[in-house]
Structures are given as C-alpha cells and as structure tokens.
Amino acid sequence: MHYVSTRGHSAEVTFSQAVAQGLAPDGGLYIPRVLPDLTEVIAGCAGMTYQETAYTFLRHFATDMEPALLQKIIDKSYTLFDVPEVAPLRRLDEKLFVLELFHGPTLAFKDFALQLLGNLYEEQIQRTGKPINVLGATSGDTGAAAIHGLIGRQEVNIFILYPAGGVSPLQERQMTCTGANNVHAIGIDGTFDDAQAMVKDCFGDKEFVDAVGLSAVNSINLARILAQCVYYIYGWHALPTDARDNVEFNVPTGNFGNVLAGWMVQKMGLPINSFRVATNQNDILYRLFMHGHYESGKVQKSLAPSMDIQTASNFERFLYYTLGCESHLVCSAMQAIKHFGTYMFEDFDTDTFSASRMGDAEISRKIQSLYKKYGYIADPHTACGFKEVLPHLTTVVLSTAHPAKFPDTIESAIGITPTHPSLEKLKTREPFNPQLPSNTVAGVKAYVRKHAK
Ligand SMILES: *Cc1c(COP(=O)(O)O)cnc(C)c1O
C-alpha cells in the first residue's frame, strides 16, 4: 500500500517513509488514497489476542516491512502494559461498557500509538544506520508517552519542551524522573503555544534540521492513527454477541485522532453504528458536529487538560475522505480555516456522528454519579464520554486515562485519592531539569546541537 498527502502535492510514499517523515512536504497529512475494504480481515480477528489483532490489521498497511519484523515490533510494543488483555473491556451495565486504554507505561491511551512508534523509529535507525533526534512540545500526556516510547534506546535522543508550571506535577515527573540519559524534558518559561511555536521555528530552519537529523513527534504521524484503529476492533470483538447490534463508541476528543481512527476502521468494515464526539468546555468539535460550523475559540483550562484544544489537526484527514478524496477541496478548506479561522461544512454525516460537551462542574458530578452507581472511578477525560448515554444503543466509552493521573480532581469529587504503583515510584526519584542557555529558539537549537546524537 502507498500513502498520499491530503493536499495532493507530494509524491506517494511507502509506510516506512510516511512514518519517518511525519508531515508530508506539502504540509498535508499522509493517508491511504482510498480506505481498503477489510470486512473479512476484521471479522477474522474474533478470539484473537491484542497483539494478533494488531498484526492481522497492520500487515495490510505496513506492506513494505517483512512480516516477521512487523510481528516482532508489535509484540514488543505491548509488553509494558500491565494487564494481559492490553485493552480490557469492562461491563458496567447491561448495555454500557468501558474500554480501558490506560494500562500502558504512562497510563494514558497515547501509549498505544507511541510505544509502537518508538519501536518503528528504532527499526528505522537499524535499517539506515542514522541516529535520530526527536523534538516536540507537549501540554502533558503526549510528551510523557513519547518519552516512554523512546526511553533508554540507543542512537535516539528525545527533547520535549513543556510549559514550566503548566503541566500537572505527576505528568512533569513522568517526563523528568526517567533516569534515562537520552531524555531531555525541558520546562520553558511560557505557555504550551509558546513551546509549540519554538518547535515549529526549529523545524523551519532546514539547515538545522538536516544537521542534527531532527524528527517530529506529534499527533499527526500515520502510524499513530493506524495503531489506534486496533483497539476498536479488539474492543468490538470483546462485546458479548447479544450486545453487538447498534454499537456506539463514545470518544473523549481533543485533536480528533482517537475518534478518526474509529471512523476509519468503521469505513473499512467494522460494524460500528455510530460515534459520540465528547468534548469538555473547549467545544470546537461539539459545535462542528452539531452545526457544521468549524470555528476556533480561545483555549480555556479545564479539569480534562488533554482535551484543552481549539484546533484539531487530524480533522484534515477526515475532511479528505468526506470531500470525496479531492485534495484541491482540502486545500481550499484549510486555507479558509487558516485565514478566517472558520469554515462551514455541508453534508455532514449526522447518522454516524453526534457530539456532547461537559463543563467542569458537570465533569465532577459525573465522576461522583458513576462512582455511586457502579463503583467505577473514571478520570475527568473519560467522564466526558458518559454524558447522556442512550438506552437503545450498546455504548462503549473509551477510557483515555487512569484516574490516578488526576488525584486532586477525583479526591474533590468523591473523597478518594486513587493511586497507581508506577506513579508512587516516580515520587521517590530525583527529577532531571535541564536548562536552556536562553529561553529562545536560539537557546533550544544550541541545546539540541550540544546534546544531539
Ligand atoms: C490526548 C488525550 C485525549 C484526546 O485525544 P485526541 O486523539 O487528541 O482526540 C483525551 N484524553 C486523554 C487522557 C488524552 O491524553
């Protein structure tokens, strides 16, 4: 299989090339030109382990890799999860299920994609003999998951910029207390947007990028989306057979990566009925799916910080398919969004998508009521997925983080402080807090040059 850019001005690439490049040279995102029909392949995943499901699905996409190598990479990617099912499905009620995606090393669903991406990078280094230096910005979960996908690996350094004081103390410790000398988590003086802008500026300097062999880690890598398709297949097959009609997945959403993966796998033949796009008060996607109107607002801090986003990078992939795979239409839509910050969509697929939003007070009340009714502790992101569950559907809420990552929010809602052994262990470790020579793009570049592999 080959991959094209959503914007249509880049050459076709293989899977490995798309993974290595991240963003396409024309600024678009890589995507299969058309989604293949994998109905039978997906049906054949019944009864398989998580790893077998992943291999069976991904081998149709990583067609330029040796099957045995792909198998090995997949097996390695899911060994650090703390339950044998990798993504266990829990039943809360007759028709209500939770697919727990927080059993990986950083206790958030991003581990599913970033453990795999780390192993793919390692394979690339072995194949090309060239070391890699990874640079990214984070508001918390992505940086931690990216770091833990690359921790302790030879020939790769990872540099993550985050707003000092702007991530939760536990998230900060996940990044700074690794004890690995290839990890550089750097708190900058500024906001997440400032950190992101510094990273962007670094990538804009071609001489610098080439000199240090810089790679990006962000939410748009093709491998991340494909890795996330797998748990929808696995979760669907874990449903009791009498609960498989009218299945709706409720997905806590920020950058639209998670729910996009589900929608793609539905188009490829997994019989999911519909999706609920669940947002917090940063409700750009709620407004889009309710009214067809995409309009960025100002980001507000919420109790579900990993969803505090007012753009949705992966939305461009969805647009490509919904605009009939016409890349010139994608280009004009992206132009309109860039220049006017707004765009009006027509012909929205309202049978497949609905949306919900939850403010902070409601999140807190939802954590309370779930605990009262089912004895289940949901983290604040997951809580958003439980808004107005419909009785005639089988509902699968994707649980995107472990509640112990947000102890204060849970404590104030239900009076219990959830813990997790891996987070307790972090509290005993000394943080490594590298300092930039100056809090500027030049300072970032100087630091990376000095420490690059
Ligand atoms: C990243 C993240 C989300 C949002 O996922 P998207 O793919 O950006 O929509 C939701 N919950 C948690 C805990 C996250 O870390």
Task: Give structural notes.
This protein is an alpha/beta fold. It has a domain of 220 residues: Rossmann fold (3-Layer(aba) Sandwich), CATH 3.40.50.1100. Helices cover 42% and strands 15% of the residues. It has 19 helices and 14 strands. A six-stranded mixed beta sheet has the order 3-4-14-9-10-13. A four-stranded parallel beta sheet has the order 7-6-5-8. A two-stranded antiparallel ribbon has the order 1-2. Strand 3 and strand 4 form a beta hairpin. Helix 10 crosses helix 11. It starts with a strand and ends with a helix. The model has no long low-confidence stretch (mean pLDDT 93). Bound molecules: pyridoxal-5'-phosphate. Pyridoxal-5'-phosphate (PLP) binds next to helix 11.
Question: Mean pLDDT, nearest integer?
Answer: 93
Could you please say which CATH topology of the domain at 86-107 and 223-420 applies here?
Rossmann fold
| Terminal-residue CA separation | 32 Å
Strand count, sense and barrel status of the largest sheet are: 6 strands, mixed
Percent of residues in β-strands:
15-25%
Q: Report the CATH C-level class of the domain at 86-107 and 223-420.
A: Alpha Beta
Q: Extract low-pLDDT stretches.
A: none
How are the strands ordered across the major sheet? 3-4-14-9-10-13
Helical residue percent band: 40-55%
As a whole number of angstroms, the C-alpha radius of gyration is: 21 Å
Q: From the helix content, strand content and strand pairing, which structural class follows?
A: alpha/beta
- Small-molecule binders: pyridoxal-5'-phosphate
What general outline do the C-alpha atoms trace?
globular
CATH architecture of the domain at 86-107 and 223-420: 3-Layer(aba) Sandwich
In DSSP terms (H or I, runs of 4 or more residues), the helix count works out at 19
Give the tally of β-strands.
14
